[in-house]
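May I ask you to comment on the folded chain given beneath this request?
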Amino acid sequence: MAISVGAEQPPSTFEQPSALESQALFLRLRASGGSDRETRDALVARFIPLARRLALRYRHGSEPLEDLVQVASLGLVKAVDRFDPERGLAFSSFAVPTILGELKRHFRDHGWSVHVPRGLQERVAAVEQAGSRLGSKLGRPPSVPEICEELHLESEDVVEALTAARAYDAVSLEAGSGASDRDLDAPQALADRLGELDERLELVELAASVAPALAALSARDRLILRLRFIEDLTQQEIAEHVGCSQMQISRLLRRSLARLRAVAEQTEQG
């Protein structure tokens, strides 16, 4: 059955289909063992406005409304297939939890920008609902301890949920910078504004290549190299720190650097 997902109909226009007619259709479908496609399609068409109305509850989220209506319609089809008219329960009372469950499952599985474990997703929802309830009651945003008391959770669990909630939405690295870029000919992408060129990155490879030679040097030679090239001391300052002459420091530096250079050249050739 092709389900129309147009969501232009506002929630207030939904009217409960005739209970007697719906009951007759459900009994006919059940008598056929669910194989009467025409009756099944007629029931789905009758209650499509209900699915639309429930999908509209979530229209302010990041998901397209048409997708939400389609998900709600799928929940409606499942409700029609599972409904037992002989139990005396109104179909809408049975269908609403089924449709809402389908919508919530959709958000749980597809709405998050990054993967978050299901248990943590459920805790995020509980914390957000508790925050809304407490905010209405207190007239201000609740504190973490207040949410902990409301949900009987540890503070670490609440903080983790609040942090994980930020993972629901993400901004593309290709996104522009917004209003501040309106006067620029080429708006700068977010990726261009994050981070900067690490001019010392090449030192990582260099450090890896000279590590064996450094390990072979004496503790004093390694200290002298550190004072000269990391702490940027002069040879005279190093001599005073180590307790020898500036001439000795110069000779030790040349010897150590020659050894490191030889190891680096062997590494490149090998």
Observations:
- The chain is about 65% helix and 0% strand.
- The mean pLDDT is 78.
- Residues 246-269 form the longest helix (24 residues).
- The domain at 202-269 is CATH 1.10.10.10 (Arc Repressor Mutant, subunit A).
